[in-house]
Design a protein that fits this description.
This protein is mainly alpha-helical. The protein has one domain. It is about 80% helix and about 0% strand. The protein has three helices and no strands. The longest helix is centred in the last third of the chain and has 39 residues. The protein is flat, with a radius of gyration of 19 Å.
Length: about 80
């Protein structure tokens, strides 16, 4: 289990793990870049936000797909009963 996995599971983890440090540095750089843009730079801002939140969006998409499949399964079973 990686330190990131431990962190996401709410377990004790090493915050100085090189992968976690690199992820924080990347997030800080993206936030700093976003803060330096003008409101009129919509495409650049959108790109930076997508880069920053892409992992979360992918996880939310996966959760939505699983939830939809579960609801379809429950609906199908209700039709049988």
């Amino acid at each position: 289990m990686t330190e990131r996995d431990k962190m996401l599971a709410g377990e004790l983890y090493d915050p100085l793990d090189p992968d976690l440090v690199a992820a924080r540095e990347r997030a800080r750089d993206l936030c700093q870049g976003l803060n330096q843009t003008r409101e009129s730079e919509r495409e650049l801002r959108r790109s930076l936000l997508c880069d920053l939140f892409e992992p979360a969006v992918i996880r939310l998409d996966a959760i939505a797909i699983l939830l939809r499949l579960r609801l379809e399964h429950l609906s199908w079973n209700a039709d049988i009963l």
